[in-house]
Backbone:
């Protein structure tokens, strides 16, 4: 039974090796890609729902080992958040190219132009964390309805947070993959900031991270930053709160004021997040700075700033995006605020809490661009009225 899937897996391995060796545009890639497509078609003729998982032992087909020679790629795919692959009948030839480009970008085997790269746009080739495919209480039809790329990035960031919680390290390839995916969406529709909203306290930390990354990259685009600078800014914004994985849920979800002891725990998360990032990847240096500084201000905040140079420019930009989304979100201790009230709050604290130049640019961007909310749970309308603050600043946790 594993002969046909084995041939497909070997062709995938050959194609990834070819792209890593020669680059994405080399003529040899087309020949190897054609062979993989032929074997994919043969596999779909034999099985109308092929499903592969990647782990430390290589690759499995419907749970059965397929190819031990795939072990190095299997490990790399899993580390990049690609734990599961599903194929469906009707795969078109052009979908294979987009699939391979997406895998290559996640694995970082060659550099794509961030403005042109496509990310996991195929309906017939789906991949991501295993958790995204293990919802036994959800029908296949329901998964398809919810299977937008935004949902996939939410699932992938949940996986990143779990890795950070368990291992005290942040996998860098999945972080870069999410940021490039968000950036590609933004480039397709420059006039829109696609904010993600999902009702439910348990989803806040994940959707907040993606929203802050989107807003921060939007600011970079609005301010004519270079593509490289925008992507680095997006990575820093995405993981700015990663230290919160060490805060107990009872504190994060508490409806009333926090005790002094609980506040001491909360105030550790910038330092904890920075330490995690520094020990995770050499190119997380900017992310570590932003994680450490994002709750500090010119007139206070935490942890106390002991240097005279002031906050990093990336921190000052991310802080505004962080507070904007925190205010706009439903929390356990208060409801969301309307947009104009948030912008007035930012303007009122420009020069003390926030960088006045960035506040001015941010408010213009929000007002000029069509700020749009993407509701991931369409049956639950997004709320828009404030309901009291519960004694906390919106971005305090």
Residues:
């Amino acid at each position: 039974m594993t002969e046909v899937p084995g041939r497909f897996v070997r062709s995938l391995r050959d194609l990834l090796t070819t792209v890593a060796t020669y680059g994405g545009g080399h003529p040899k890639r087309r020949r190897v890609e054609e062979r993989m497509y032929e074997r994919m078609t043969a596999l779909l003729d034999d099985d109308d729902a092929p499903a592969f998982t990647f782990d430390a032992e290589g690759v499995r087909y419907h749970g059965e080992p397929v190819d031990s020679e795939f072990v190095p790629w299997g490990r790399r795919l899993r580390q990049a958040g690609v734990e599961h692959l599903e194929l469906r009948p009707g795969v078109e030839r052009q979908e294979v190219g987009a699939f391979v480009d997406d895998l290559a970008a996640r694995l970082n085997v060659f550099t794509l132009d961030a403005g042109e790269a496509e990310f996991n746009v195929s309906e017939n080739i789906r991949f991501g964390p295993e958790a995204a495919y293990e919802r036994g209480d959800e029908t296949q039809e329901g998964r398809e309805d919810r299977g937008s790329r935004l949902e996939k990035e939410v699932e992938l960031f949940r996986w990143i947070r779990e890795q950070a919680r368990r291992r005290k390290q942040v996998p860098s390839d999945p972080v870069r993959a999410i940021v490039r995916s968000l950036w590609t969406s933004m480039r397709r529709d420059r006039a829109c900031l696609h904010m993600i909203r999902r009702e439910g306290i348990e989803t806040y930390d994940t959707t907040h991270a993606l929203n802050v990354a989107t807003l921060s990259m939007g600011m970079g685009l609005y301010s004519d930053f270079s593509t490289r600078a925008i992507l680095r800014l997006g990575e820093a914004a995405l993981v700015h709160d990663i230290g919160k994985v060490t805060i107990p849920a009872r504190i994060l979800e508490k409806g009333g004021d926090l005790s002094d002891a609980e506040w001491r725990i909360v105030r550790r998360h910038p330092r904890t997040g920075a330490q995690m990032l520094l020990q995770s990847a050499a190119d997380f240096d900017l992310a570590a700075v932003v994680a450490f500084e994002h709750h500090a201000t010119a007139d206070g905040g935490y942890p106390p700033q002991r240097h005279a140079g002031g906050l990093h420019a990336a921190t000052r930009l991310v802080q505004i995006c962080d507070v904007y989304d925190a205010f706009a979100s439903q929390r356990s201790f208060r409801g969301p605020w309307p947009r104009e009230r948030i912008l007035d709050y930012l303007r009122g604290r420009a020069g003390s809490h926030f960088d006045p130049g960035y506040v001015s640019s941010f408010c213009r961007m929000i007002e000029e661009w069509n700020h749009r909310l993407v509701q991931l749970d369409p049956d639950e309308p997004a709320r828009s009225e404030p309901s009291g603050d519960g004694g906390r600043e919106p971005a305090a946790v």
Remarks:
- The longest helix spans residues 3-22.
